[in-house]
Design goal:
The protein is of the alpha+beta class. It has a single domain, classed as Alpha-D-Glucose-1,6-Bisphosphate, Chain A, domain 4. It is 33% helix and 36% strand. Strands 3, 4, 5, 6, 7 and 8 form a 6-stranded antiparallel β-sheet that branches. A two-stranded antiparallel ribbon has the order 1-2. The longest helix is centred in the C-terminal third of the chain and has 24 residues. The radius of gyration is 18 Å and the shape is globular.
Length: 177
């Protein structure tokens, strides 16, 4: 019964929470409070249960997460993964598909999940077989720090915020069967 109420609490919190955890800046992702981490509060749920639910969620979302998982049992989960053609970048009339290598890290305390800001590299294979790495500052920001393209900027923010939301949503539903 305790697990049922914990799952309901997680589901209600995650469902009603806003999916904007991080925003990209010229220096990387930051949370609303300008920290390099966001905290999701889930009152009444023990650290170990939060850890297990997120770990199980990752294992159901990713086909082979063990290759990219680094865990401290009951305390933290770090996931390194690759997403092919994850983002598009437009330059004039040309559009380029970029693959992303990224890392998401989750830390746990009773009633709280800390999500560290995503770390990532984006790259694409050129027509001649060489690889081109996307320079984040140049791709998304002007020299004065203003956003170059709202569309491209929204896409990268949405990619990571939706990914985090997906893991948290799945973790709240993992024991419903």
């Amino acid at each position: 019964m305790k697990t049922f109420f914990s799952c309901v609490a997680i589901l209600l919190f995650v469902s009603f929470s806003q999916a904007q955890y991080f925003t990209l800046t010229p220096n990387g992702f930051v949370a609303d409070n300008k920290n390099d981490f966001a905290v999701v509060e889930i009152p009444g749920v023990k650290q170990d249960e939060l850890y297990k639910n997120v770990l199980n969620a990752i294992n159901t979302i990713y086909s082979n997460p063990q290759n990219g998982l680094n865990v401290v049992s009951g305390e933290s989960i770090s996931l390194s993964a690759t997403q092919t053609k994850a983002i598009k970048s437009s330059a004039g009339i040309m559009t380029y598909d970029y693959d992303i290598d990224y890392t998401l890290s989750f830390l746990f305390k009773d009633g709280k999940i800390r999500i560290n800001s995503p770390k990532f590299e984006a790259y694409m294979q050129n027509y001649n077989g060489t690889w081109n790495t996307l320079n984040i500052k140049k791709a998304y920001f002007k020299n004065n720090g203003e956003i170059k393209s709202e569309k491209n900027y929204k896409q990268i923010n949405d990619f990571f915020n939706n990914l985090i939301k997906r893991v948290l949503d799945k973790s709240s539903e993992i024991n419903k069967w």
